[in-house]
Amino acid sequence: MRHRDLPPLAAIRAFEAAARHLSFTRAGEELGMTQAAVSYQIKLLEERLGAPLFLRRTRAVELTPAGRRLAPAASDALDRLADAFAAARSDAGGLLSISVLPTFAAHFLAPRIGRFQIRHPAIAVRTRATRDLADFQRDEVDVAIRSGLGDWPGLEVHPLFPVDFTPMLSPKLAGTKGPLETPADLLRLILIDPGDRWWPLWFDAMGVEGFEPTAHPDTRMGDQHLEARAAIGGHGVAILTPAFYREEIAAGMLVQPFPAAAEEGQFYFLVYPSARRNVPKIRAFRDWLLEEVRSDEAEFAPVSAGPQRRVPIARPPAAADTPAGRRRGE
């Protein structure tokens, strides 16, 4: 029998977290331990190793050369152990927990998720529609749908489709104020949530001057899919992502009066921890979702007048890839 002379797992976990954060306090918060307990575990590891792993400064800690050598190996070993444990626990079935943006959940995932469950009856699905970024280390989440630039360290990132946006309204409302011949004609209508940052971005991309949010009633719905429902009801013009409303446009519930959709270079992404990329239920969902996106692109041709086109726009500082920088309810 092979004997491995290994230190306690608790000591390795404490060291790995402290090395990532360069803080005993933050490592303790992550692991549910006190700072003193983290320090004690690392001290055990240092005694076992016979060399210091950290240089302890007054207000910070630094890794020693030995600590820098050990830290990536500790992270990789814990990731592999977590991956193997998750795979063993999940096997081919189990519970798949999905954190998903509300509009994506309502208009893309919900109409299609039944097909995934038919294909994989052993996998139960639980979705949580939220704007909060999932913390894969803390939350019970397997995969997430996010919008942004895709620069999330430690995650596998699969782009789905662009986050673009264009005005839409009901056919009945479209005829109440005369023909909509130019984008500027929309200023005659009620705009749903005129304070949404997408409105000035779209008008600027179309070369329209004179848009002033405060000149329009301050109507707010909070989520894009609620704004779409208000637009379908004839209560104003909503600025929406076309990919979510192709069926409503095809059915005559909404019209997209102008073919141009603005975009800032952001995408919707499927993400999950790199260490869990081979977990069967995650792999099954990834393959199915990417297939659905490809099928959706092939099935739906642009249904607005004229060829669909995207207009890239400069990305302002306020549009950073943070919860505050993303549009509500995406």
Whole-Å distance between the termini? Answer: 54 Å
Secondary structure tally: strands: 9
CATH superfamily of the largest domain: Periplasmic binding protein-like II
Relative strand content: 15-25%
Per CATH, the architecture of the largest domain is 3-Layer(aba) Sandwich
Give a concise summary.
The chain is α/β, with parallel strands linked by helices and 330 residues long. The chain has helices at 9-21, 24-31, 35-49, 65-90, 102-109, 113-119, 171-174, 198-205, 224-232, 246-250, 280-299; strands at residues 54-56, 61-63, 94-100, 123-129, 143-148, 155-168, 238-240, 260-273, 309-312. The protein contains eleven helices and nine strands.
3D architecture notes:
The structure is a single chain. The chain has 3 domains: 9-90, Arc Repressor Mutant, subunit A (Orthogonal Bundle); 94-163 and 267-298, Periplasmic binding protein-like II (D-Maltodextrin-Binding Protein, domain 2), CATH 3.40.190; 164-261, Periplasmic binding protein-like II (D-Maltodextrin-Binding Protein, domain 2). 37% of the residues lie in helices and 18% in strands. The protein has helices at 9-21, 24-31, 35-49, 65-90, 102-109, 113-119, 171-174, 198-205, 224-232, 246-250, 280-299, and strands at residues 54-56, 61-63, 94-100, 123-129, 143-148, 155-168, 238-240, 260-273, 309-312. Helix 11 links the parallel strand 8 (260-273) and strand 9. Helix 1 crosses helix 2 (24-31). It is elongated and about 80 Å long. 32% of the residues are buried. The model is unreliable at 301-307 and 314-326 (pLDDT under 50). Keywords: DNA-binding, Transcription, Transcription regulation. This is Transcriptional regulator GcvA. Pfam families: HTH_1, LysR_substrate.
